[in-house]
Amino acid sequence: MAQDSTVPKLNFDYWLNKAIEWGQATTLESQKDVCLHLPQLQEFLQQLYETLKDEGSIAAIQQFPLLGQLLGRLCWNPFVIGYDESQKTLMWCLCCLYSSEPQNPVELKANSWIRSLLCHLLSSSKWESNEAETSPFISTLGYTSADYYCHLVKNMVFSLVTELRENQFNGLNTQRSVSASEVNAVSIFCVPLITLPDLTPLLETLLLYHGDSPKEILCPEFLEAVNEAFLKKKISLPESAVFSLWLRHLPSLEKATLHLLDQLISIQLNSLEEVACVMKDSLLPQAASHPAIFRVVNEIFKNALLETDGTSEVMTIIQIFTQLFLEAHQNQNKQHAFPLKAYFPGHHQPLVRALLRRPSELPTTSWSLHLKNISDMLKALVEDTNISSLTDLFEIWFLVACFGEWLDIAAEQLLKAAVQPDALLWLLAFYYCPQNENQQRTRAMVEVQAVYNHLMMLLSCADLSLKHLEAAVHRITGTEQCCNQHLMTHLLTNFLLFSSGGHMVAQKCIYHITEATDTGKEVYGLLIRTAYRLQRRGEENQRTMKLLNELLQKLTWKV
């Protein structure tokens, strides 16, 4: 009984035929088929319930005259009512059909039939524990029905786990080798029981099981159901089992990554600690220690950035993910760690190694020299005649953008009097203006150099006013190039946060710039990244942190 590759979402006739075909699922073939269709059936039942709720029972019965037959058959299928929320949804559908004030014998009879089905469903929701109805055999053992069936499930799970593990480790040395088809059958029959707590050891064992077959031996419906239950936090699995799931089933990894993106984009990014917490909870940064997982996740992030036109929210998410990935990679056992080239196979490896160095690994006095090294390598790559296509240029830019912490530190280092600014300014100019078509980046360098020189003259001024910053603000609000605005705003914001007199005019100055330009989200992202960076470095200057919090509150409405 092969599973259909596509099933219409609200095809009543399809599911009625299936229910008739299945009966009460007494044969092995029908049981397998039920298990393979359970997720789709649950989706259909949910949509059917929404239809009944919105249109009313009379309109629904007119549209589907055999609705009662379908619901009745499904209510007596133990696999259906045992799966996730299908039993509850069936009860909701029946309640929608119930007439609170029956007007004729037909409605009275229908109510009686619905009550009997509801009683059946309610009694099926727990093991019968009445001693009078317990079989003599179970009573002789000293168990109630509930205890007996609970122990039965645990013993079956223990037996299967033991057999699979012995087969995995001993292979052909076992008395009876477990075939790939048997493992596949076990995975199919687990689908309706995924959320059963006692089944967790078996789920873990199946996910970590690898037979001799070159093909995947676990059924895809099982892998999808486990992933869905994990994402909805209906089950808890060890990290190793989750990583194995994503390595052996690409659709599950893709769904997990998109699920994380949806989660993060839907919440207000008030603090990057919250973002980091959600990311760690997803296990994706830890799983990305495996290069195959990292490359898939990175590709999805890259596409998300392109689809959102490089929005600052998505860019910040990518940068925090990269930081957490680096932490997880460095915490790995060095004997089992993959070479860094495996994560970035198509890139200039000296540049990759430089970007992968975390700021905390270097003394702060070496940061500017390290950034100059990154800038010089990047400039040589970008100006190489072999980098001719926009695709190649974008790949280089995306690599640098993933390590945005170094870019923020570059802007911070420019305020140090001893630094040589040209290399750091070029690095920032490349980030904000990666293309140099029509000398765009060259012109950006000229403008930002003028703003930078002006700000450096004011660096030691303790009594700053808006008038002092008028020239810099005018350059920002007067330019038509969006990338130039963002670059100069980045420099000015850092100046206001870290210079001795900047705090006095920071709120008024930033408010003025964000009112006159479309840089509100960019500034907000910069501020929360700065707060996060200072907290991670243990440099929580009370005055600066207070200013950051005030600015973030002021800008929240703009984002």
UniProtKB/TrEMBL annotation:
Q: Which domain of life is it from?
A: Eukaryota
InterPro entries on file: FANCC (IPR000686)
Name of a matching Pfam family = Fanconi_C
Signal peptide location in the record? Answer: none
Listed GO biological process terms = cellular response to oxidative stress; interstrand cross-link repair; nucleotide-excision repair
Q: In the UniProt record, which is one GO cellular component term? A: Fanconi anaemia nuclear complex
Q: What is this protein called?
A: FANCC protein
Which species is this UniProt entry from? Tachuris rubrigastra
